[in-house]
DNA sequence: TATGAATGAGTGTTCATTCAT
DNA sequence: CATGAATGAACACTCATTCAT
């Protein structure tokens, strides 16, 4: 009846619960349609508590976005990919690309909601858009060319614009993921078979 | 004390103005963040007028979506593409594909906002999602395979799954459009050059 | 498409249709909950037409009320009752009272909706209340005492306050009508039998 | 930019204030004509606060009705009357009836607004009507016959249908109350005198 | 005279935000 | 620190009323 806390006292944990609940709701309904009361319920805190940590609703979005950007850009473009690339440095390029695809599919399956929020809200919030794209382009221009550079030098692949090549590859994969997610009924072949096929098309496409 | 009639009287036109304003606002801010007062202002009508034509705000979205679906699915997948394909039937496949890309870029430039609305809101509204995907998968499964069939028979290209090939091609194009829209600064080559390159990669990828 | 009338042109008739539709709707939902659009539809006219005849919605109510008051007060308290009383002047008083009851039940069955509107809206609109009660009290004080005066003089009934007696009788009848309308299931005896019983109670009650 | 909490915190009290304000306004203007903004002002709360307790305006009516029904049916038909009847069990029947009338007048004077709401809105809302009448008829059929039964057995009064007798008595009283409320100017005798007269009429009417 | 498209003040309702406890 | 009752600006939506045709 009196005001005051009941649950465990762990500010960091509470903050995290709120942020995670917010990401969940944002990804289900979008930022505008999500309500703070809903988020509070999902986080298991009182509505007022949210505002101790995030004075404005938009702060929730910003924090989520910053985390997402870090995850998406740093993790996606850098860490994870770098790892794959390094591990497979000596492997045939087919194997490298397949590993990349599988890695990306896993990434999207785990970080899907967050990614969704990024892409949805980026459209509407100039500040977020800039933040995201700045980070992204920074990393992309650094990392992407390296991936194919070595192979080009070895003469395995054509001397084409690396960005275009990589981006095309990404487009193929995303199109596959998107289609398998939303219109799975039109598929006639198995996922692994499909991955092979995509890699095959891509490699034939760019090889000398 | 209450309002009265003033402006021109043309129901059909008013309805259209409202719908167009709505699509514009929806695509700028998303459905939830858009307000009817804002839409009214953009349409140049009183707020109450909107509700004569669209009793619920969601009706605006639904109507926009139905129109969008018709445009996107029927027009995109069928009419326009069919035309391109027929016109270029005897042309080399490179030319066909380039024509398709240019046609799609034009389409997206003109119908961009509408398309954006579709993809945003589809995520959140089950009913819209079903409506869209049903139409889309219907058409895709009919049209897409025809595009490559002939070339396969002539032995120009590999005997691979047409859906995967086409989808990969679409993915490449969309990735290009998306990147050029949002991170244009990382581009090093000219659009037409890029189109040539994409077609080249794709054709090499699938040719026998 | 162009503005302009289609139907018969008969102002008086149109006006009447509107008023009747209004009374119907008012009695179904009350004045406030009734909408002019609903009334227009029920009257078979365009919404704007209503305001040619009744510039304000309240005018509809006022006109209905005036008609109702005329009907209810003049007709109920005066004409109809007078007629019954005159016809049965020489009849035994039991017969007179039964005739009155039957007459009143008929009246209410025919004029029910209008009566309902009177009693409902009277509560909220001071002006209507005054109009109604003024008329009513005028007539009641003139008519009511005459009904029993003669019988009193003949020594058939006690020399009690006529108003109280008559009002009690009216109360008995209205209670019967109300109960039969809303809780008919609790009745054990037939209507005519019940009328006999009420008259019997009343007459025994007032007889010397 | 948006509001904040200020006043005392007592949910139960706030809820009650709102309900009472609502009953007051409903009884003054009817449900439809009452506005939530008006109710909020009368209750001394912000408009939004109302909806924390009663998510829909109609919920206010329903809650008021349920309370009213309980009060009216349970209290009126059962508790209060039972008490009177028990207290006066050995008293002459005249005294019993007078006590009943006085008790009822007091009841209506105190609960008037609530009762008014019941009778108004019952006409328009099927659900309320059913709720009310169900409760009412349940109780009436249980309580009413008991009132006269004993007297019948003692041979003091005729062996007539108890329901009709009681209802007639209620009708007489309500007619008195109604008339005294709305057309007080036509009265020539004092209230207590009038009560005596009504009881006299009724008793003579039903005595053997 | 009748129409019905258009109006806009006003209604019920929502929700981010505040603050006494 | 956390609560949740309270707030009020803003929203979707209604409806009596006006007026060009």
Task: Note down, in words, how this protein is organized.
Four copies of one chain form a homotetramer. With 208 residues, chain A is an all-alpha fold. Chain A has two domains: 8-55, Orthogonal Bundle (Arc Repressor Mutant, subunit A); 61-206, Tetracycline Repressor, domain 2, CATH 1.10.357. The first copy, chain A, contains eight helices and no strands. The first copy, chain A, has helices spanning 11-29, 36-43, 47-53, 57-87, 93-122, 126-154, 162-182, 191-206. In chain A, α1 (11-29) packs across α4. Chains A and B meet through α6, α7 and α8 of A and α6, α7 and α8 of B. Chain B binds a DNA duplex (21 and 21 nucleotides) through α3.
Topology:
The structure is a homotetramer of 208-residue chains.
Chain A: H1 11-29, H2 36-43, H3 47-53, H4 57-87, H5 93-122, H6 126-154, H7 162-182, H8 191-206
Helix pairs in contact in A: 1-2, 1-4, 1-5, 2-3, 4-5, 4-6, 5-6, 5-8, 7-8
Chain B binds a DNA duplex (21 and 21 nucleotides) through helix 3.
């Amino acid at each position: 009846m009196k005001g005051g806390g009941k649950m465990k006292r762990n500010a960091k944990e509470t903050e995290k619960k709120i942020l995670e609940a917010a990401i969940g709701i944002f990804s289900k309904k979008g930022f505008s349609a999500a309500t703070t009361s809903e988020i509070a319920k999902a986080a298991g805190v009182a509505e007022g508590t949210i505002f101790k940590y995030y004075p404005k609703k938009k702060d929730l979005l910003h924090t989520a976005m910053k985390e997402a950007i870090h995850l998406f850009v740093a993790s996606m473009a850098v860490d994870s990919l770098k790892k794959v690339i390094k591990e497979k440095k000596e492997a045939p390029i087919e194997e490298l690309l397949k590993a990349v695809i599988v890695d990306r599919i896993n990434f999207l399956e785990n970080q899907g909601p967050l990614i969704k929020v990024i892409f949805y809200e980026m459209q509407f919030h100039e500040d977020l858009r800039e933040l995201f794209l700045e980070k992204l382009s920074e990393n992309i221009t650094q990392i992407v060319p390296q991936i194919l550079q070595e192979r080009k030098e070895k003469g395995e692949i054509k001397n084409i614009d690396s960005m275009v090549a990589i981006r095309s590859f990404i487009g193929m994969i995303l199109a596959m993921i998107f289609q398998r997610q939303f219109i799975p009924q039109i598929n006639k072949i198995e996922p692994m078979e499909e991955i092979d096929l995509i890699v095959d098309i891509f490699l034939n496409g760019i090889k000398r």
